[in-house]
Input
Amino acid sequence: MRMDLIQPFINSADAVLAQALQSPISIENLSMDEEAYRRKGVAAEVGLTGEIEGRIIFDVDLGTAVQLASRLAGIAVSETDEDLVREAVCELANQIIGNAVTTLNDQGFHFHVRPPAFLTAEQGSKSSEDTEALVMGFRTASGNVFMNVALRYHRRRAVERAAVAG
Amino acid sequence: MENFVPVKRSEDGQPVRYLIVDDSVFARKNLARMVETFGGQVIGEAGDGVSAISEYERLTPDIVLMDITMPQMEGIEAAEKIVRDHPSARIVMVSSVGYQENIVAALQRGARHFVQKPVKPEVLYEVIKYVMRDDGTTGRGAGAGA
Output
């Protein structure tokens, strides 16, 4: 997987989580995922289309998600406030992925991002020859947060776009 | 959260009235909390671009805070439609997706400003003051500024 596509997601997660939680975070794990994706807790998925295609899953243990929601909402949120916890995870996914997408677009990669969707499936597809999945684990003061990034770069579309632009 | 000098409408000294448009309830509540600390009043919320247009028609708010990436109709298209019918509409785009092409497209279609998520209250406050500059005023003696 191209690291220039991945680095913006790491930087964005670092910046957004640190600001949201008002505490530093660290990267605990960075590895290729060759197995089918298995959901760990409360998860949101964002799809990308264009020169870069694929999906990013933002996945948080339930306990951590409850703490994140409480910090973001500024009130005590419990596990029974399912909608609020899901909303918090989706909004954090939106902010982290949106900021990374901004960096990549400004670097010349052109693609579109779909709104985050709450992920209910326990399991997803395996990585393939042209779409590798990378798992990133972050440690925060509220617990562990994971991102599973599976992207494919369409060189042909970039060349076509450059040709049209002249 | 910091204390902000309330931003008021210069014409009648009343609070600035906001319509908040975002598909995330969580984001809407956060923005609502923020603008209330600026002395503003949230008069409506919408979760997509289509509802944003109808809510604008119904409420005629002073400012619209509009997300970009939303289901049904995205924020830039909704902003364009609102400004086409209401050229004086003040629309501030609030989105995590803030690359240059997107910002330029939003401004070309009538948005007044752009704020990137995660939103910092002091940044949004300055943008609100700027967008309301032809009409807004800040109250006196209502706490420290940003």
In short: Chain B is about 40% helix and 20% strand. The mean pLDDT of chain B is 89. The radius of gyration of chain B is 14 Å. Strands of chain B lie at 7-9, 17-21, 41-46, 63-66, 91-95, 113-116, 136-138.
